Amino acid sequence: MSCKPIMFHNVPHDTFNCMKKKLQGAGISVPPGNRGELSGSGVVADFEWDGQSNLTITITEKPFIVSCDTVARKIKSFVKECHGS
């Protein structure tokens, strides 16, 4: 069962690339390009960035002892670190 999609708006190219690098640095596998599947630490998520400003991440697999909210908060922290806010 997947979690509800996490939507980010106003995500410029630099923020998107920064987030991908931070996820990779945390041991998460991130493919090149604007869409694909993130995976690591028992979590799998699909991501799609429209190339402009909208990013959608959908968690498709996670350990059963970890809530969707916990995983979403962690992902949001990566975006926030890169957004400079």
List the topology elements.
Elements: E1 6-8, H1 13-25, E2 35-40, E3 43-49, E4 55-61, H2 68-83
Antiparallel strand pairs: 1-4, 2-3, 3-4
Helix pairs in contact: 1-2
Give a written overview of the molecule.
The chain is of the alpha+beta class and 85 residues long. The protein has one domain (6-83): TATA-Binding Protein (2-Layer Sandwich). 34% of the residues lie in helices and 27% in strands. It is globular. The mean pLDDT is 92.
Give a quick rundown of the structure.
The protein has 85 residues and is of the alpha+beta class. Helix content is 34%, strand content 27%.
Order of helices and strands: EHEEEH
For the record, the CATH architecture stands as 2-Layer Sandwich
CATH structural class: Alpha Beta
CATH superfamily: TATA-Binding Protein
Task: Quote the CATH topology.
Answer: TATA-Binding Protein
The side-by-side strand order for the widest beta sheet comes to 1-4-3-2
Q: Strand share of the residues?
A: 25-35%
Number of strands: 4
Percentage of residues assigned to helices: 25-40%
Please outline the major beta sheet.
Answer: 4 strands, antiparallel
| Count of spatially separate domains | 1
List keywords for this structure.
85 residues, TATA-Binding Protein, 2 helices
